[in-house]
Amino acid sequence: MVGLGPRRQPSRKGSMADVPDDLLEQIRYLERIFTVDQAKLKEVTKHFIKELEKGLSVEGGSIPMNPTWVMGFPDGYETGSYLALDMGGTNLRVCEIILLEEKGEFDIIQSKYRMPDELKTGESEELWEYIADCIQQFIEYHHEVEDLEKLDKIPLGFTFSFPATQTYIDNGVLQRWTKGFDISGVEGKDVAPLFEAAIAKRKLPIRLSALINDTTGTLIASAYTDDTMKIGCIFGTGCNAAYMENCGSVPKIASYNLPPDMPIAINCEYGAFDNEHYVLPRTPYDIVIDEDSPRPGQQAFEKMIAGLYLGELFRLVLVDLHDNKSCKVFQGQDISKLRKAYTLDSSFLSMIEEDPFENLSETGDLFRRELGITTNKPELELCRRLAELIGTRAARLSACGVAAICTKKNIKSCHVGADGSVFNKYPHFKARGAVALREILDWEKGQKDPISILAAEDGSGVGAALIAALTIKRVKEGNLAGIRNVEGMI
């Protein structure tokens, strides 16, 4: 198999000799449908570039390519104290970031607060009241003052990790709730005034300077400590990227009459790449995942590479093989737990790929413990190979988005900052993605990779604070593009 990235030891490969012909045939079939060769990677990347361009156009396309109104990189010498608020699906995080005099240096103080489940489906006012209460607790604890009104107003960057449309850097109209939230009366509204009203009610010394996406924060935070960083990516429950574009290359903001060479960060939201199904090599199992999802026909790219779906792909294949009368998988076993949709996540595959033992005993224990299934050695070999195939395909396809941005921008050498559970925790994901990038961009053998994907800085904390700092700096310089509340900014 060409281009599959790191392989297992030859000794384990030899154990395939013990696998019956019916399972070997299924393994070969799975290898055919899940393997993405170099030619396909290049085809996907070529189409990706066209879709990036289309998203920037007036007409738009499946990839939104949202302008973020972050107008440039930090120079590393930003200073001052800033708050950062990170609202995710499980926790609310409040940080105070002190940007120091030394280039790229900062201190961070942070507290996490559990997001109560009842708030996720409650009333809008209750949500914002809770957030304001957490911020008040944080400030009172860390600043040790009785009268908060005596404090100077602290600029805040708000990482709002939900799909939002921004006409200004300090606003965001919620497109739709995700992550289990379903609060009525907020979708279609600007969340900034709702947040600001709760802050004002408590007379907290805060001014909202920027509302950001976590991918944009990853880009800016990584660039703060590494000036060769040009792209920020998230490979976790979902997938996304952000990069810096020239305003003159974004036709849909031409009416703002901005200088054509002025930079603006673009939040790609490219999980929606190829919703039309032109080039992505979907298997029958990918089609089932899409059709059974809450939003069929959307997020096509994400459904093939993101952590939310890797375990489900694995599960669908195993159920299909069990029910397939031409091969014998889990015979006589009760697979009722395996039949439950989304009962497995990407960590299940991670544990299989990390099993260090020749007899795959840890994988066997995993199946017994989690699914109540007793496996034999050939079945374990099949499961191991399937996990490798799904994990490798995800890593290789993830490289296409990075390669497309680099090709479009004619970036020959840079660092890419990546965050997310799949990038940070899934075995071999980084190495497999690097191999794919090399194949797509035709680097010479023996050449050091000119474009490297590295672990990112804290985008939703440090990145949010930096973007607040950059926005205030812009106001002072008179560059007011995409800023709603200019008077309240400084």
UniProtKB/TrEMBL annotation:
Keywords: Allosteric enzyme, ATP-binding, Glycolysis, Kinase, Nucleotide-binding, Transferase. It catalyses: D-fructose + ATP = D-fructose 6-phosphate + ADP + H(+); a D-hexose + ATP = a D-hexose 6-phosphate + ADP + H(+). This is Phosphotransferase. One of its GO terms (biological process) is mannose metabolic process. One of its GO terms (cellular component) is cytosol. InterPro entries: ATPase_NBD, Hexokinase, Hexokinase_BS, Hexokinase_C, Hexokinase_N. One of its GO terms (molecular function) is D-glucose binding. Pathway: Carbohydrate degradation; glycolysis; D-glyceraldehyde 3-phosphate and glycerone phosphate from D-glucose: step 1/4; Carbohydrate metabolism; hexose metabolism. Its EC number is 2.7.1.-. Residues 27-224 form the Hexokinase N-terminal domain. Belongs to the hexokinase family. It comes from the Eukaryota. PANTHER family: HEXOKINASE, HEXOKINASE TYPE 1-RELATED. Residues 230-470 form the Hexokinase C-terminal domain. The lineage of its organism: Eukaryota, Fungi, Dikarya, Ascomycota, Pezizomycotina.
